[in-house]
């Protein structure tokens, strides 16, 4: 069991839902604070930011590999530097955003992208840290975060089992066992067919960590499925409206969808239950409506039971239907009206 702030995370509690603001504030602090309000209304557990500047995440170069040219990339036509300049959250906004979250009772933390961001976030006393998929191979950053002693959430996008082993070992070598791995597909948006959620229970067993999902698919279906496979943390990008645009808006949830995510993942968690056969306590009253054997015609003492005068019908107060072949051909020892449940006491 891992605890972030006042929230316990584990399979004994409802899923921990993280609303990722990312760059969907569109460089408006007012919009950022409004997003916090909307996340709180949706019922999430935590709000997350990303803490970097263009210069801490890439170089001020706009050609070659620093320019996004792949046709399938959501951000084609921009340099990395200009993209991150558009997407980053000004560091001077963090405290105001975190304070607004606290007013709503939300936990608030961030993904640092270099060691200076960790130092800055420590001044704000964040309760946890998130390592983004593209940084899960940044072992110095993972070690730096692990040394804070706070829970460490690591997205696993693109990482091989060996790379994840290195990341988990790096955190544990610093004495930090509070590790949550998030299954992640680092495409934007991702597709359900490319989500490979079967990895979640395998990863839990392989690394011995708590498991979750960082989900870039549209809708709530993939997240709900992940919960049934053992995900206890769900992270989703969100925005006020996809129509309003924004750097991540194309694959972000709108407020009503975020609320649905909270509700449906909790329902999925509730449905898992335990291994159980036989009627639940709530089903006991329904037992009387199962099929059983009934007298289907008025009979006199000594009449022989036949396929015409014994029926397999609802309700379930007669003999179980498995005795049908056994009772056919037997005589009854007293009169019986149509609708009488067949019992051993009626048989000679």
UniProtKB/TrEMBL annotation:
SUPFAM superfamilies cross-referenced by the UniProt entry: AFP III-like domain, Aldolase
Domain AFP-like: 292-348
GO biological process: carbohydrate biosynthetic process
InterPro entries: AFP_Neu5c_C_sf, Aldolase_TIM, PseI-like, PseI/NeuA/B-like_N, Pseudaminic_synth_PseI, SAF, SAF_AFP_Neu5Ac, SAF_PseI/NeuA/NeuB
Leader sequence segment: none
Keyword Isomerase: no
PROSITE patterns, alphabetized: AFP_LIKE
Pfam families: NeuB (PF03102), SAF (PF08666)
Keywords from the UniProt entry: Transferase
GO MF entry, a single one: N-acylneuraminate-9-phosphate synthase activity
EC nos: 2.5.1.97
Name of the protein: Pseudaminic acid synthase
Source organism per UniProt: Lysinibacillus halotolerans
Originating gene: pseI
């Amino acid at each position: 069991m891992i605890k972030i702030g006042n929230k316990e995370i584990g399979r004994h509690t409802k899923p921990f839902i993280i609303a990722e603001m990312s760059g969907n504030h569109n460089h408006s602090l007012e919009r950022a604070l409004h997003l916090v309000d909307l996340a709180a209304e949706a019922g999430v557990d935590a709000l997350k930011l990303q803490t970097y500047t263009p210069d801490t995440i890439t170089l001020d170069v706009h050609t070659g590999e620093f320019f996004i040219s792949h046709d399938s990339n959501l951000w084609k036509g921009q340099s990395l530097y200009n993209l991150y300049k558009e997407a980053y959250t000004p560091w001077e906004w963090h405290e105001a955003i975190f304070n607004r979250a606290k007013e709503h009772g939300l936990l608030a933390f961030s993904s640092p992208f270099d060691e200076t961001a960790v130092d800055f976030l420590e001044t704000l006393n964040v309760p946890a840290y998130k390592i983004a998929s593209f940084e899960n191979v940044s072992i110095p950053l993972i070690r730096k975060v692990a040394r804070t002693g706070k829970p460490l959430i690591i997205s696993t996008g693109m990482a091989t089992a060996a790379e994840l082993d290195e990341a988990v070992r790096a955190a544990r070598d610093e004495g930090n066992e509070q590790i949550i791995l998030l299954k992640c597909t680092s495409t934007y948006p991702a597709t359900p067919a490319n989500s490979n959620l079967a990895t979640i229970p395998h990863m839990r067993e392989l690394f011995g960590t708590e498991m979750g999902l960082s989900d870039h698919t549209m809708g709530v279906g993939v997240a709900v499925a992940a919960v049934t496979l053992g995900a206890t943390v769900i992270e989703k990008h969100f925005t006020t409206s996809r129509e309003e645009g924004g750097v991540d808006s194309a694959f972000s949830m709108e407020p009503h969808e975020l609320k649905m995510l909270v509700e449906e993942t909790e329902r999925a968690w509730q449905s898992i239950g335990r291994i159980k056969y036989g009627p639940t306590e709530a089903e006991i009253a329904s037992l009387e409506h199962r099929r059983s054997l009934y007298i289907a015609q008025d009979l006199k003492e000594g009449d022989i039971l036949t396929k015409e005068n014994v029926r397999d019908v609802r309700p379930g107060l007669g003999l179980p239907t498995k005795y049908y072949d056994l009772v056919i051909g037997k005589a009854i020892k007293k009169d019986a009206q149509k609708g009488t449940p067949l019992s051993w006491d009626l048989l000679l």
